[in-house]
Amino acid sequence: MPRRSKGLRREVIPFFLLLICMFQLEAAPSQRSANHRLLFEQELKSSLDILQHEFNNHEKEIVILEQKCENLQETIHALSNQISDHQNKQKEFIRTNASSQEGRLCELESLTKKMMQDLKSLQTHLNESNHAISKLDQKLTQLAHSSELQRKNMENMQTALAALMDFLQPQQQVAQELKLYEVKEGDSLGKIAQLHKTSVKVLKELNGLTQDRIRKGQKLKLP
């Protein structure tokens, strides 16, 4: 309550009490004696003092209550401000947290897209590697087949070479065992055969002769 209303109340109430007392005094019978009048005034004054005392007490209680009300209003106002601040902070926290969560979701989406791209690239590389490995396997199979053919050809060549060597070795041995003789003037198959302790028939067979005639400078194989 404002201070001005308090002052008016303090001034008006005693005024009304005074008016009541005056009306009571005027209403008293005029024939009363002075003693009775004095006694009445004393009682009235005592009543007024009591009323004034009670009024003052009530005034103090009212002031205390008003102070309590003011304190309560201040407390309510402070609590209201605190609640408002708390609500604002909570809204800001929710907004910030939502923004942060949205940012994290964007980062996760970006990371997921990148991982999917990497996975696709890896899958493509894997397919290319598998294709290259398949081609390499084919080449290895072809090389193995070619190697097998070459091995067989080599074996065949070795077999043929061995057969050729077996075929040529007796002739080489015969060629190594045979000697050559150059026919000189006056030589004959009989003379040459006698000189080298063989026969005309052997000389003719070794040299492929069909007759006994020979010529100077002719080379004959000797056993």
Oligomer: single chain
Give the termini separation: 164 Å
The largest sheet is:
2 strands, antiparallel
Counting H and I runs of at least 4 residues, what is the number of helices? 4
- Rounded mean pLDDT score: 77
The portion of residues forming beta strands comes to under 5%
What is the number of E strands? 2
Helicity range: over 70%
* Low-confidence segments: 27-31, 171-175
* Strand neighbour order, sheet with most strands: 1-2
Give a short overview.
The chain is 83% helix and 4% strand. The chain is mainly alpha-helical and 223 residues long.
Notes on the structure:
The chain is mainly α and 223 residues long. Among the domains are: 3-106; 178-223, LysM domain (Membrane-bound Lytic Murein Transglycosylase D, Chain A), CATH 3.10.350.10. The protein has 4 helices and 2 strands. Mean pLDDT is 77; it is low at 27-31 and 171-175.
What topology emerges from the helices and strands here?
Elements: H1 3-27, H2 34-177, E1 179-182, H3 189-195, H4 200-207, E2 219-222
Antiparallel strand pairs: 1-2
Helix pairs in contact: 1-2
List the main descriptive attributes of the protein structure presented here.
223 residues, mainly alpha, Membrane-bound Lytic Murein Transglycosylase D, Chain A, 4 helices
